[in-house]
Every structure is written in structure tokens, then in C-alpha cells.
Predict the 3D structure of the following.
Amino acid sequence: MTAEDDRRFMALAIQLGARGLGRVWPNPAVGCVIVQGGRIVGRGWTQEGGRPHAEPVALAQAGERARGATAYVSLEPCSHHGKTPPCAEALVAEGIARVVTALEDPDPRVSGRGHGRLRAAGVEVTTGVLAAEAEAAQAGFLSRIRLGRPMVTLKLATSFDGRIATAAGESRWITGPEARHLVHAMRARHDAVLVGGGTVRADDPLLTVRGMGAVRQPVRVVASAGLDLPLGQLAGSVAEGPVWLLHGNAPLAPQEAWRAAGARLLPVALGGGGLDPVAMLETLGQQGLTRVFCEGGGQLAAALLAAGLVDEVVGFTAGLALGAGGLPSLGALPAGPLAAAPRFELVESRAVGGDVLHRWRRV
């Protein structure tokens, strides 16, 4: 195989792994491609719920053709006994001659041991192929392992003067149907959708993925220190997808009401006049979440930005103006010089129906 072949097959493995985003937490969304004589004989990706892993799926498809073949895996094969046998051992057992990976797994249960197990068995190992692309694809899993928190995507849908509602509070709909459909697709690629209590009180949102067929619903998370929330669509739809509530020293009555509705309550430390944003995300990370899609409101978004916890911003800008009386997309940020403002670099910009999508990554 040439270096160009390695990159081509690894690109496919990364693309396959992305099919598991939002469906496999707390596991990483891994892809695997098995190549024999220049031909693909097996493909696999981490299945819903996190198992089976990508490698045994691809090996099962390859069958006897796996012997002497090369396996391209977007993350180091696991080497520990968990709910499934180690993938490194499965590759050895099926006679794989060469393994090409993009990244070493930072999980301390693996972290080089998978590569070591393969080399000890006489398998040729090449690492670091398309590492940057794999880092981007695995950003959520890597954030949870390295930082103890999921990655956060902040979604903002605004008028071109940065407003999310009129002065009277009307907000449906600022953006068009194409943008809203794309938002549902983005929800589906995240483990959880996060909103603040103000959004629930104002909009009574459902926060499910709709219009995408039968999909695994993301966890719907509400951050509300006092749990002063209406028992609306969220409470009535727990059977459709999990509802988690991050709260502080909330009164006992709403806690009992939400538990009776089937929601899961997670206490979080207070800080800065509300729930501490770092503690919020660490709590979600401890529960296994790797990718969180934050849809506001303005106070929650500002708190996450001020704490340096937003990894990516997805903005949808509509062709209308609401003026200074409209509700701004962000709450107040700490006063300071321009150089201290949260800064992001543009990743892409394109038209979506009658709106403009712009995606930014934290510098």
C-alpha cells in the first residue's frame, strides 16, 4: 500500500465512524475498513449503544478474506476486557497482517496498549494517518477523556442584527424550514440537547429529533437552578427520549414532580449567581456524554462562552432585522478588552434555504 492508499482508506474509516455520532456514547464513534489486495473486503462502524465495536463488524463482513489483510481503524483498537472482548485481540485472531490507525486512544485503559498488543503478535502497525481529521471527528470523546467534559456546540439562530425574538417575545420562526431541518440533523449527531430554564419557560420546547425517520433520540438536558419549570412537553414526552435536569438547591416539590414524570435529576454546584457551568459539564461528562448541542437561551450561552466551554458555534442568520428592542442572542459577558473576548475561527459558510449557515471553531 502507498501512503496515498493509506490516506484514502483512512478517510473512509473516519467517514464510516461518523455514522455513530450521537448514537454510541460513552464510546467513541470509530470506523474500520479492511483491505485485501487493494480491494475493500470489510467495513464497519461502532453500532448504536456503543457495541459491537467497528472492528468486529468489519471482520465479520470480511470473513476469511481478513487473513493477511490491512485494517484501517480511525482510533487505536481497544485492549481491555469490558462489555466486549478487546478489538486488538480480535484483529490478531483473524490474521490481520497490518493495522493503520489515525490516533492513539487517550483512555488510560487503552493508551498505547492496543498498538502494543498488535506489535507483540507480529502485526505491522502504522499510526498517525489523517490524525487531524480524526481529532476533529473524535472531538467529543477526546474532550471527555482529556478534559472530563463533553464538547459543546452552541447553536444560534438570529436575525442579521443578532436578535432571537421580537420585543414582544415572538420567535417562531426567524429562520426558514431548511435551516430548521438541518438543526434536527445536528441534534441527531449529538448525544444531548441542552437548554436553560428560561427557554423552557418561554417556549415549552420538545427538543426531539423530528423529520429524520427512526433515530435514537438525544438526551434532553435542562439547566435550572431552582427547577421553576412548567411540566409541559418535556415532562409529557419522557417515553420518547430521556430528560435530565441539572439543578441546585431546588425545592422538594418540583423535584418530586419531575421524578414522577420520569426525568433524571442531577444536582450541580452553584457559582456566579447560578449553576456553575464547569460543574454542569463535568457532571454531564461523568454520565458519559461526549457531544452536547446547546440551543440557548442567552444567559446559558453567555455563561458557557465566558467560561471558555464552547468548542464550536453554529450560527443561522436570517434576512430580517428586529431592532434594538428585540431579545439578543447572548446575555451579558464580563466586561473587558476586545482582546479578551471569546474568539472563534470560521470553518464554513453557506446558504441554507433563505438563511446563511456559518460554523466557527474555538481558537
User: Anything to note?
Assistant: The two ends are 36 Å apart (CA to CA). The first strand starts at residue 31 and ends at 36. The chain has a mean pLDDT of 94.
